[in-house]
Amino acid sequence: MESIIFFILAFFLLSGAIMIVFSKESLYSAIGFLMVMIAMAGMFALLHHSFLFLAQILVGVGAVVVLSIMIILSINLKEENQPKQNITRKNILFTTLIIAPIAGLLLYAIAKAPFAFAPIAQHFGTIETMGKVLFTHWVLPFEIVSILLLGAMVGAIVLSRRRLHVES
Amino acid sequence: MIELSHYLVVSGILFSIGVVGVLRRKNLLMLFFATEIMLNAANIAFAAVSSYYGDLSGQMFAFFIIAVAASEVAVGLGLLIVLYKKQGTLDLDDLAVMKG
User: Domain B4-95 class?
Assistant: First the structure.
């Protein structure tokens, strides 16, 4: 049962990623991005990481994907403004040649290692345990991330509100 | 039975697809999506290794990656809107303002 769910999730993950990379329309890529994010949340749920599952649904799906779809819809990319994607056979071959050694090395290193999951402790990765560790051992990174998020928020607001002086 | 290596293989394939996207796409928006895929691939690996060792540090890293990715997307898309208003294109080859 667990392996069936895993393979379904992996299928959605990889097909969504392929959809992002290879589709011509921006909105289709955004839908692929949504698939990747939801399948990621499913992976976290399969690993019994309820905190990461919630964070992924709230932040990943709820904020990032919705924001990017809104941007795509609002700037209304016209067909003639889309960059020309000259997909020649030479380009594909060249990219594959670059990627194949990296992917091969990754897969080789992973496949050689004998792994298995130990039985997971009962209260592992729940919100309570994560909160306890977050506010004891990881307080400083947590505060730094909150400052980073504040800076990002201010930056995004300033960038999108500024009136542009177009030189003419 | 699903083992750690399954998760790591999925993560590796996902990361490679992300690298292909970064190298191949000329649209700035697609570049954001491809980098997000790569960050998510790292997240899967962190979460799986965290379960394998029974250590919460991996999940903490994944959590911080989620937060940093969200802030990156917010600022990046703000910049993208400004750029699109100014230049009317998202082609990465046209982004040569800083070229010396």
Answer: mainly alpha
